[in-house]
């Protein structure tokens, strides 16, 4: 009996050790966080008072008058974020919203503002994102990060202007909370063969407040919080805005427009 008890205890111990090793080897969010080198700060010009007017060939996605171009990501019902005084404010309870239309290659202009007096730190400070191709539910797709990165330390491939968890911005061009900021983005969609094999990766060039932050950056796949990015075939996709669940006050948007571009 004593021998059997010793064997049972040994087996139980081995199971516990195996479980501990499995937990230790399980992917964690921290595995894909990059903290250095820290992008240098470049101060942009003064924040614009008025929203930028779209060019003549643009598809206007938000001009301060309503959300007719947007739906809720979760069920495609009418988007339920707040529109007041020409400004669109995130409703975290309503969740992500995305465009009714799908796009392939395009130029995007997007203005956003972190509320003055925002609280929190790191990723819990004005967190949102624009998904340049919303290829899946929830937070599926390819994310350009929105965050208060004015004197707010976080991992560099998660700060404002990063292609989340893949490419830090070339510089930190963030304005203070309470000031309007702008992204201008050129999105080149990935291409796939008939069998779904990737033939050309996605590429992004982006400006933050008029300053180059991504220069023809090549993506390794869709944005993921844990693990390594990979590609799923798609043809065209909506543009999505994130209602992040961090506890800081919600941010706002204005002047969103897109120009469709011919493929490479």
Topology:
Blueprint: H1 2-25, E1 59-62, E2 70-72, E3 82-84, E4 87-89, E5 97-99, E6 106-113, E7 128-133, E8 142-146, E9 181-188, E10 191-192, E11 198-200, E12 203-208, E13 211-218, E14 240-241, E15 252-260
Antiparallel strand pairs: 1-15, 2-5, 3-4, 4-15, 5-14, 6-9, 6-15, 7-8, 7-14, 9-12, 10-11, 12-13
Reading off the top of the CATH hierarchy, the class is best stated as Mainly Beta
Characterize the largest beta sheet: strand count, sense, and whether it forms a barrel. Answer: 8 strands, antiparallel
Strands, count? 15
Helicity range: under 10%
Q: What is the SS-derived class? A: mainly beta
Domain count: 1
> Which sequence of SSEs, written as H and E, runs from N to C?
HEEEEEEEEEEEEEEE
Question: What is the CA–CA distance across the termini?
Answer: 75 Å
At CATH level 2, the architecture is Sandwich
Any descriptors?
264 residues, mainly beta, Jelly Rolls, 8-stranded antiparallel beta sheet, 5-stranded antiparallel beta sheet, 1 helix, 9% helix, globular
Question: Could you please describe the fold and organization of this structure?
Answer:
The structure is a single chain. Helices cover about 10% and strands about 30% of the residues. The protein is globular. It is mostly beta strands and about 260 residues long. The strands form three sheets. Strands 1, 3, 4, 6, 9, 12, 13 and 15 form an eight-stranded antiparallel β-sheet that branches. Strands 2-5-14-7-8 form a five-stranded antiparallel β-sheet, with no helix packed on it. It has one domain: Exo-inulinase, domain 1 (Jelly Rolls, Sandwich), CATH 2.60.120.560.
């Amino acid at each position: 009996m004593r021998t059997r008890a010793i064997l049972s205890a040994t087996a139980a111990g081995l199971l516990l050790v195996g479980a501990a090793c499995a937990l230790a080897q399980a992917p964690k969010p921290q595995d894909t966080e990059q903290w250095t080198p820290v992008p240098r700060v470049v101060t942009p010009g003064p924040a614009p008072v008025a929203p930028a007017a779209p060019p003549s060939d643009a598809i206007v996605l938000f001009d301060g008058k309503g959300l007719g171009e947007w739906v809720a990501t979760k069920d495609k019902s009418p988007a339920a974020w707040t529109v007041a005084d020409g400004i669109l404010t995130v409703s975290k309870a309503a969740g992500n919203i995305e465009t009714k239309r799908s796009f392939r290659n395009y130029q995007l202009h997007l203005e956003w503002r972190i509320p003055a007096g925002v609280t929190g730190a790191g990723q819990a400070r004005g967190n949102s994102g624009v998904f340049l191709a919303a290829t899946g539910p929830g937070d599926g797709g390819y994310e350009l990060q929105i965050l208060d990165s004015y004197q707010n330390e976080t991992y560099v491939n998660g700060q404002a202007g990063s292609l989340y968890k893949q490419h830090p911005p070339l510089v930190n061009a963030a304005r203070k909370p309470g000031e309007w900021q702008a992204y201008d983005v050129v999105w080149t969609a990935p291409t796939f063969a008939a069998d779904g094999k990737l033939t050309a990766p996605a590429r992004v060039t982006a400006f933050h407040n008029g300053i180059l932050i991504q220069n023809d950056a090549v993506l390794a796949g869709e944005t993921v919080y844990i693990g390594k990015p990979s590609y799923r075939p798609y043809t065209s996709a909506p543009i999505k805005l994130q209602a992040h669940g961090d506890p800081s006050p919600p941010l706002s948007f204005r002047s969103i427009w897109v120009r469709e571009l011919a493929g490479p």
